[in-house]
Write a structure and sequence with these properties.
Layout lengths: L2 H10 L4 E5 L9 H8 L4 E7 L10 H20 L4 E5 L2 H12 L3 E5 L4 H16 L3 E5 L21 H11 L22 E2 L15 H6 L4 H15 L3 H4 L12 H5 L5 H13 L7 H23 L21 H8 L6 H13 L4 H14 L4 H11 L5 H12 L14 H8 L4 H6 L8 H4 L7 H7 L14 H16 L1
Parallel strand pairs: 1-2, 1-4, 2-3, 4-5
Antiparallel strand pairs: 3-6
């Protein structure tokens, strides 16, 4: 080999391997990061805050979480020798420029599943491959890829129970991959790099994030603490107690899973490790129910992948003719937790204050909007998208359509939650309502979930002035139920 050939060969190997992070802000069980490190090249770790492509813009709560999560992830990378470079712009433009400017030889990422995300990633993969760049994508977000689970006719699964049964029969959940021991950093200047603060993700004027700051620790460390706490105590009795919003028997992992601070595989194996050690003996039903909840997350992504308009179009087209109404006043009352139904208002205020809502109450509040107020489910989906810390496209869309009755394997439309009985059954001691609707805190439990039935003397003693410091119900339950059922009959005939 001549000297020129040797130099040319060396130059071919000097470029870095790019690892493009998205919803996988962790160093553990991160197959894209592991692949980049295994090349032996310098690893250029990048995050692109893309507000220019067709992907759905982040809501305020998700932006808050993202800022905190990127801070935590940056520190994780630093501890392993790496560095996170943040870019702001359109990925389809920035990535090819980055490859050219750094003379990168490889690029790796973990897959996304939304329609526009897949289109962007697919186009980039083709472009890079044509230019002889090594480009690979991995499953870093799910336990099962959406295309793995099919019916016997090779069509997408539309019902959860057979979907989950088929997934579990297909194979065991993959073992999480090892965390790299060291990241060989790319230390050269990166064009278009911005400081995290310049993205202006945190709320100002006003800063409404105090409740979220008090509730959450975004980042991988916070995720692992949440898993440990749940598997140590919260999972005991989970199958029943997960429906009680005033108790700590839900995992509250959804924001951590969405942002990829911990993987579903890691949660699964942490759970199974405790089962194998006998720490959950006697709680087999609770384990199975929690596993199925992880399965519902997989099912939601299966639906989004196979039916990419899930967030904007009725899965069941007969609902295209449903007589939703325009009610701006009712929508605003619902958004602000001022409906006059305490369990609904508690849920909406919990969402506003903490960026999260208990799952049972999500169903109650969604049912109220759609079936009591007759407001299009897409209005609710949009509000949750803006106010949920996780704002997950698959789970949010699938869940709203499930409650509406318009989705796959959906609850029947005629299943209409009575907000009074839901409160009395699942918040029987009133802990949840008293916490988030403090103006009702002194009401006797007998009247807490239906304050309009309390005698004036009881209301006065509790400091409740209906119509002044707490609203009268904005709609009568029996009237609303009949109206919703009549409307449903019109599309079912």
């Amino acid at each position: 080999m001549t000297l020129n050939e040797t130099l040319t060969d060396q130059n071919k190997n000097t470029g870095p391997a790019i690892c493009w992070f998205r919803e996988d802000l962790r160093v553990s069980d991160n197959p894209a990061l592991s692949a980049a490190c295994e090349t032996g090249r310098d690893v250029l770790c990048i995050y692109i805050y893309d507000t220019f492509s067709r992907t759905k813009a982040f809501g305020g709560a998700k932006k808050w979480w993202l800022h905190k999560s990127l801070e935590a992830f940056s520190n994780q990378l630093i501890q392993l020798g790496g560095k996170l470079h943040i870019l702001h712009g359109e990925a389809e433009t920035l990535l090819p420029e980055l490859v050219k400017n750094t003379q990168a030889k490889a690029i790796f990422w973990n897959r996304r599943y939304g329609e526009y995300e897949r289109e962007i990633d697919g186009a980039l993969k083709i472009k890079f491959a044509e230019n002889e760049l090594e480009v690979k994508s991995f499953n870093g977000h799910l336990m099962y890829e959406p295309w793995e689970i099919k019916t016997q006719a090779k069509t997408p699964m539309k019902v959860f129970t057979p979907f989950w049964r088929a997934a579990r029969a297909l194979r065991d959940v993959d073992i999480p991959c090892l965390t790299p021991k060291f990241i060989k950093p790319y230390n050269k200047k990166v064009d278009s790099e911005v400081l995290l603060e310049n993205l202006k993700l945190l709320p100002t004027q006003p800063d409404w994030s105090a409740g979220m700051d008090a509730e959450w620790q975004p980042g991988a460390e916070g995720a692992k603490k949440r898993v440990a706490a749940f598997l140590s105590e919260g999972i005991m009795g989970y199958s029943e107690k997960r429906n009680l919003p005033g108790q700590l028997h839900t995992s509250k992992l959804s924001p951590h899973l969405h942002h990829g601070e911990i993987s579903a595989r890691e949660v699964w194996y942490e759970l199974m490790l405790r089962v194998e050690k006998g720490k959950l003996k006697g709680f087999e039903k609770d384990v199975q129910v929690f596993q199925s909840e992880l399965g519902w997350r997989e099912f939601s992504y299966n639906l989004l992948f196979n039916f990419p308009k899930l967030d904007t179009e009725n899965f069941q087209t007969k609902f295209n003719n449903f007589a939703f109404v325009r009610d701006d006043q009712g929508l605003k009352a619902w958004q602000r937790g001022q409906t006059g139904y305490p369990i609904v208002d508690a849920g909406m205020r919990q969402l506003w204050q903490t960026g999260w809502m208990h799952n049972r109450i999500r169903m109650v509040t969604a049912s109220f909007l759609i079936k009591h107020l007759m407001i299009d489910w897409r209005e609710g989906e949009a509000w949750f998208w803006d106010t949920l810390c996780e704002a997950d496209l698959a789970s949010n869309s699938a869940s709203w359509q499930w409650v509406a009755g318009s989705g796959a394997d959906a609850a029947p439309y005629y299943r209409i939650f009575n907000p009074v009985t839901q409160g009395e059954k699942f918040d029987s001691d009133g802990a949840y309502v008293r916490k988030f609707v403090p103006e009702l805190a002194k009401l006797p439990q007998k009247y807490l979930h239906k304050p309009w039935t309390a005698p004036l003397s009881v209301l006065a003693e509790a400091g409740v002035k209906l119509g002044k410091n707490y609203p009268q119900p904005i709609v009568d339950h029996e009237f609303a139920r009949k109206r919703a059922l009549d409307s449903f009959k019109s599309i079912s005939a």
